[in-house]
């Protein structure tokens, strides 16, 4: 994809859709999201349409000019083919959102994705999961899947490493082992390496009201890949899971206004996530949120309010009264604005000088 710098892995949820919509046009033009429908455990096939079409239509509305992929990675076996068809119906009209399949998925889902790709003229995303050590049998499965395309369908390789945290120092080497085998299998239109470096924030590890720095290990893995002399490396594209843990895209839908007792405000620097856990209930909530925003705004790496809507929101939140809750947002707002500043910074980091 000409000009593609970045593939963010996003849930097809309102906070992520709004974040994508708030990006500057130049930033949006440089990235292509991999959208993921949330799980629908136990939902009958007949009810999958009403449960998913509204979100799919919102994703389609956002993609009037730019490409992306749409996937249902958590679909149950009896749901997978029907969901793939629903996604194709709702997003295939503009030809900008590509269906996704991969090794290990049911033959019915693979067939439905291939049919949608041919019908809509979009090409096909092949998502290969690599949560640990590379297993060469996955390459055999990919080769069988590619054989079904007949060689005339454009294909995109989406190598999904899942969580790439400090506990997984060998992720880069495993990615190279996988790519050494997968890259020769097809004339890939796109080759993206996706990894989730955002930590799982817990009360035990992140004290309330304190700034905590954690390394962007997925970014470190990407830089390790870029030092390799493999001939395919210049053709690879960076991807990540934004400012949520990789497992966050598997969160189920929730209904009603359930307020979490705490949340996280965060900021992305060149090599770290800077996070502050804050209370989300009680009389001290506004002061806690504004205090966190002020600390983030005061970071030496803070890029200023003109950098993106995310930085502008942090500036405005930090400037408000400690007793006024107006403008302090909720967890969904913190996720939205966090992803805006993160995706903007990633694109700027990857833009050639």
Description:
- The chain is an alpha/beta fold.
- Helices cover 38% and strands 18% of the residues.
- The strands form 2 sheets. It has an 8-stranded parallel barrel with strand order 1-2-3-4-5-6-7-9, surrounded by 6 helices. It has a 3-stranded antiparallel sheet with strand order 8-11-10.
- It is globular.
- The two termini are 20 Å apart.
Defining traits:
eight-stranded parallel β-barrel, 38% helix, alpha/beta, three-stranded antiparallel sheet, 353 residues
Topology record:
Elements: E1 6-11, H1 14-22, H2 25-29, E2 34-36, H3 48-62, E3 68-71, H4 77-91, E4 97-101, H5 107-120, E5 124-129, H6 137-147, E6 155-163, H7 171-182, E7 190-196, E8 211-215, H8 217-226, E9 236-240, E10 262-268, E11 272-279, H9 285-297, H10 309-319, H11 331-350
Parallel strand pairs: 1-2, 1-9, 2-3, 3-4, 4-5, 5-6, 6-7, 7-9
Antiparallel strand pairs: 8-11, 10-11
Helix pairs in contact: 1-3, 1-11, 3-4, 4-5, 7-8, 9-10, 10-11
Radius of gyration: 20 Å
Mean pLDDT: 93
Q: Tell me, what's the shape? A: globular
How far the N terminus sits from the C terminus, by CA atoms, comes to 20 Å
Q: Give the helix tally.
A: 11
Strand content: 15-25%
Query: Strand sequence of the main sheet, in spatial order?
Result: 1-2-3-4-5-6-7-9
Order of helices and strands: EHHEHEHEHEHEHEEHEEEHHH
The tally of strands reads: 11
Class per helix and strand makeup: alpha/beta
Biggest pleated-sheet summary? 8 strands, parallel, barrel
